[in-house]
């Protein structure tokens, strides 16, 4: 049997490039250097520039895998976005603000190479889960030059939209029975200081402390039954942004726990795609 069809070549071909070094950082007690890498999904289409969404993996700032969600991130790519997943140093490698500096270095790299990857440098959004949701918030809200270090400093690390999933937004809101228990918490390890013993310093590196009316549009996604990062963390950031007069939506998901399957269903990704289409 033979069949013949006619195909209109309308949509671009998308390519996946992994392991692109976007920055280097000190390693092994400052004696060696490690590459920080990103994975990229981009269209082979030189006729136009595409908005870019930067993904930040979660893992309690203890572990991360920039390639773990590429299958889902391709959904965004096929909706007309360049998608980059950036690596950052974990808390056993470097304390805050190093992970945020790494994310911002990745954003600057993408702007510096926007022509190469058909990126519109004026339309970059950021999205991440849990610890990556925290870094998403901070990348969008923390504009002090101290967070921009390394190469490509002539380019901005600002983003035009942010979509954090179940983000820690106020470290003081996590309940521990005593300071000894708190000392081993992910947020204390990130800071390099015990959150319960240093509450003011903890608050000073939390997203709720960086809210201004200049914040970009936010879509906060949080499960109402989150047993790891309480739903109130997303609510608190939403309320602070709303109080400042910002463009913010809190999308709550019924019966959803932390990082469970609810977040990988079509309905949620439709919301994400619609948000970035509207705001970028």
Kindly list the characteristics that best describe this protein:
single chain, 280 residues, alpha/beta, Rossmann fold, eight-stranded mixed sheet, 8 helices, 8 strands, 24% strand, GDXG_lipolytic_enzyme, Acetyl esterase, AB_hydrolase_fold
Enumerate how many helices there are, as a single number. Answer: 8
Oligomer: single chain
Profile the largest sheet. 8 strands, mixed
Number of domains: 2
CATH topology label of the largest domain: Rossmann fold
Task: Please mark out the parts with pLDDT under 50 across 5 or more consecutive residues, or reply none.
Answer: none
Determine and state the CATH class of the largest domain.
Alpha Beta
InterPro entries: AB_hydrolase_fold, BD-FAE-like_dom, GDXG_lipolytic_enzyme
Protein name: Acetyl esterase
Pfam family, one: BD-FAE
EC number: 3.1.1.-
